[in-house]
């Protein structure tokens, strides 16, 4: 018995929900599919599937074996891809995780260009501000900003994300507009906390040699970038948000930038992937594409601030900022 073929057939049967559809997908006779599964169960001495006249279901042993089969078959395809001419034409399933705000605002709108360049890649994009365990959840790579605490991951710098301090006109009308970062201590600010650690992140400002690192007061804290934006639009306080996210709302008048003569911190952006995985052609393709996208300064800043010293702010304090502000 060809073990790899049997494993692939088993995965197809589970994914398709039945023998007939799996046989059609693989262009194999249904009898061949049934025989391969039966032989696989006999060799493993476990029951992988529960069969009835109407449907099949996966046994607990079958579910565990399915996950291992998917991982093994993926590794085999990646190894073959690395040695073949598919480097010039990457193909296959690619699982990516990205911060929700970054995905909604920049990555997903730009995906037509990605698929035009790489038509044979099947992309699965998770959009979350949660720090995902890449190995446990079967993720090929992730876009992250700020602190890269996980030393088991390989990181490639792909750009930086500027921040804009702003608030809704309704809030400023009621509470006034601060003219110095220190005045934020008398305002209601919207804080952001890391989902993994619960840490509330500080705000950093710089101007003409003066640098301030503040833990601003606030009646609420949020750990989701879309929720953070919604809170700012609702007039709940002053926020510090990704420049590319707030740009359309500033242009429409729904948000007003403040402290524009101060440089806010810039967050370094990386693509990370597990150390024990080679950089396959499809991962390399995504890294190159996202690097080009995030290198576009017009997309990563509002154009409201001229801050040539912005990148000097990148340091330990800024690295504590989460990707979730994307």
Overall outline: elongated
Quote the CATH topology of the largest domain: D-Maltodextrin-Binding Protein, domain 2
Low-confidence stretches: 302-306, 308-326
- In the CATH scheme, the class of the largest domain would be Alpha Beta
Annotation field: number of helices: 11
Q: CATH superfamily name of the largest domain?
A: Periplasmic binding protein-like II
Kindly report the oligomeric state of this protein. single chain
- Quote the average pLDDT: 81
Order of H and E elements: HHHEEHEHEEEHEEEEHEHEEEHHH
The residue fraction in helices comes out at 25-40%
- Total strand count, please? 14
Which percent band covers the strand fraction? 15-25%
Largest sheet properties: 7 strands, mixed
| Rg, Cα atoms, Å | 25 Å
CATH architecture of the largest domain: 3-Layer(aba) Sandwich
Number of self-contained structural domains: 3
How far is the first residue's CA from the last residue's CA?
A: 50 Å
Structural class of the helix and strand makeup? alpha+beta
């Amino acid at each position: 018995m060809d073990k790899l073929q049997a494993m692939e057939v088993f995965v197809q049967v589970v994914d398709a929900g039945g023998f007939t559809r799996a046989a059609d997908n693989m262009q194999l006779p249904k009898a061949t599919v049934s025989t391969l599964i039966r032989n696989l169960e006999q060799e493993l001495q476990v029951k992988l599937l529960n069969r009835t006249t109407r449907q099949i279901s996966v046994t607990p042993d079958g579910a565990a074996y399915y996950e291992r089969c998917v991982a093994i078959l993926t590794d085999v395809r990646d190894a073959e891809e690395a040695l073949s001419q598919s480097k010039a034409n990457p193909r296959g399933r690619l699982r990516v995780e990205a911060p929700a705000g970054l995905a909604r605002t920049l990555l997903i709108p730009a995906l037509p260009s990605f698929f035009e360049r790489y038509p044979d890649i099947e992309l699965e994009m998770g959009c979350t501000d949660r720090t995902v365990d890449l190995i446990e959840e079967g993720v090929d790579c992730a876009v992250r900003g700020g602190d890269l605490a996980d030393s088991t991951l390989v990181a490639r710098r792909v750009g930086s994300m500027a921040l804009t301090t702003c608030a809704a006109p309704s809030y400023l009308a009621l509470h006034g507009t601060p003219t110095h970062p220190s005045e934020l201590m008398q305002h209601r600010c919207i804080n952001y906390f890391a989902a993994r650690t619960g840490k509330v992140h500080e705000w950093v400002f710089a101007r003409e040699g003066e640098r301030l690192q503040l833990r601003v007061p606030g009646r609420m804290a949020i750990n989701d970038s879309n929720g953070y934006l919604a809170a700012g639009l609702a007039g709940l306080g002053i926020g510090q948000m990704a420049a590319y996210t707030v740009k359309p709302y500033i242009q429409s008048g729904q948000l007003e930038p403040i402290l524009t003569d101060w440089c806010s911190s810039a967050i370094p952006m990386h693509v990370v992937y597990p150390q024990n995985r080679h950089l396959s052609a499809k991962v390399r393709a995504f890294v190159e594409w996202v690097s080009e996208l995030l290198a576009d300064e017009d997309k990563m800043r509002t154009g409201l601030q001229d801050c040539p010293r912005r990148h000097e702010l990148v340091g330990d304090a800024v690295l504590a900022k989460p990707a979730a502000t994307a």
